Amino acid sequence: MATYNPKQYSWLNKFYQSFVIYFLFVPVYYLFYRMKVYGKENIPKDKKAFIVMPNHLSNNDPPIISTTLMRPVAYMAKKELFEIPFLGWAITKLGAFPVDREKVSKTTIKGAREVLLKGWCLGMFLEGTRSKIPDTLGKPNIGPAYIAHLTGVPILPIGIVGSNKPFGPVTVKVGKLFFPGRDLEKAKWQCTEKLAELTGFKITSP
Asked: Which of the two ends of the chain, N or C, has the fewest CB atoms closer than 10 A to its terminal CB?
């Protein structure tokens, strides 16, 4: 089974992901998916790490986020994806590491902290899985707020619309960096409100 491997966050893998972003993701999503990005001024210009928190509509979302930020992102991904031939290898090369959604291990938490310390952005989908109801955000998890508190890094919310449609069009809206409240239960709904504002999607009732 796949596990977190600190060696995959070397300068070589960062170069590899940057190469893929520039020469594969950019032409695919800007040309074929007609992607438009708003709020680019909210993307930090320095090299400090942050947690990027998008909503989740499709498997296109991780490369869309990397293309929006134009910098390497290490994504938390469900462990089952790493068991799929080729896909597991590909997402590992692109900086993903596994998480058991039923029981988050200490290794996963340690991995998230180390990724941020190495200067990578950490990608965490607030809903944990793809939204099942059109134009509605799924139930949020405390994960992004918890890791933000644990590491002292801010969250960058990003709203994605249209990535679940064949060849888009895709609209991406980048919000402003923020630090979630200390109460995790309230913080996850605070995070949800940020994404609702950016996407225009409804919020699932608690």
From this structure: N
Residues 115 and 72 sit within 8 Å (Cβ to Cβ): no
| Torsion sign (Cα): 174, 81, 50, 153 | positive
Q: What is the CATH number of domain 6-40+47-203?
A: 3.40.1130.10
Q: Rounded to an integer, what distance in angstroms lies between the CA atom of residue 92 and that of residue 13?
A: 10
Are residues 193 and 203 in contact, defined by beta-carbon separation less than 8 angstroms?
A: yes
Helix (H) or strand (E) holding 186: helix 184-199
Q: What CA–CA distance (Å, rounded) separates 185 from 146?
A: 10
pLDDT in tens, 49-87: 899 999 999 989 999 999 999 988 888 877 777 777 777
Q: Which residues pair with residue 82 across a beta bridge?
A: none
d(CA 63, CA 20): 9
Q: Are 168 and 194 in contact (CB under 8 A)?
A: no
In degrees and rounded to multiples of 5, residue 28 shows phi and psi of: -65, -50
Give the Å distances, CA to CA, from 12 to 6, 26, 80, 121. Answer: 13, 20, 26, 16
Q: Considering the entire predicted model, what is its pTM?
A: 0.89
Nearest to 180 by CA among 195, 167, 166: 195
- Listed in order, strand segments (DSSP E) in 132-186 are 136-137, 155-161, 171-174
Plot region of 86 (φ>0 → left; ψ -120 to 50 → alpha; else → beta): left
